[in-house]
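Comment thread on ticket #2218

A.B. wrote:
> Attaching the input chain for the structure job we discussed in standup.
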Amino acid sequence: MTQPTLIRREPGGMSTLPEALRTALTLAAAGVPVLPLRRGKVPFGNCLACKSSGCGDRPNMKVPGPCRCPAPCHGWAAATTEPAVLTSQAWAAAWRQAVAVAYHPGGAGLTVVDLDDADAIAWARETLPATRTVATTRGEHWIYRGAMPSRNAVRPGVDIKSSMAYARYLGPGTGHLADLPDAVRALTVKAPSTVRPAPHAVTVPAPAGGECPHRTPAYLERGIAMAVERITEARSAVHATVYRTFLAVLSMHGRCGCLTDAHVARLFAAAQTKGESPRHCSDAWANARTTLGL
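C.D. wrote:
> Ran it. Output below, let me know if you need it in another format.
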């Protein structure tokens, strides 16, 4: 069988490949979709046929379109695990110019928490479970098992790279992969404002001491954890389960102002993990509040 033109045969019979391509092939063999990065550590621009979506792909690569360009076009959507594509003549020029290798975390079932500075790293160490860690030029990549939507600047110095995004490959890192925690998923969820008691809402009688009976952190935390578990364990009727769970949480904690954005974000993240859209989460929350007169 004819060898791909990118491979050169040395006198001793050994084939040589650009270093970036060797790395890419190793990652691809492990099921990680890869692509080359050019100077500036960014993907190669679309070819003339694909420029300005001339090939019929969907604008801005929100979803990979029908384009089957043989060149490494379309940014993260070009990432592949196919050795025949990676070593093809159409990719040869890109590999010769490549300064690094990138991968599509979501395509490999992974999420990268990109920590850009010391403050972000300190926050992660206090907040997130330990997992595989890779040193970067300015900070660290924390890699978790599980995919999710990507979003930049979820908090100071923190980006989320997973589905429809790319991350630079900087080595295998250290530590063992941990499962993607709810705390990371919640970072990309736009939660509604803190629940406040409506002027006409029925108030819960306060105890003799005059303090809200739900402000005990352990009590509230247990309630939120149980609600997240109920949604996560749903095997059918997910829509109904989400609504009933939201209703139960609001009936217990919605009238006294205990709930915060962080609590609601955890509930929304659990629902979206089960396939609910952000719009459905917002609608279910609003309907539950209406039912309770909040």
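A.B. wrote:
> Thanks. Noting for the ticket: Confidence is low (pLDDT under 50) at residues 1-14, 193-211.
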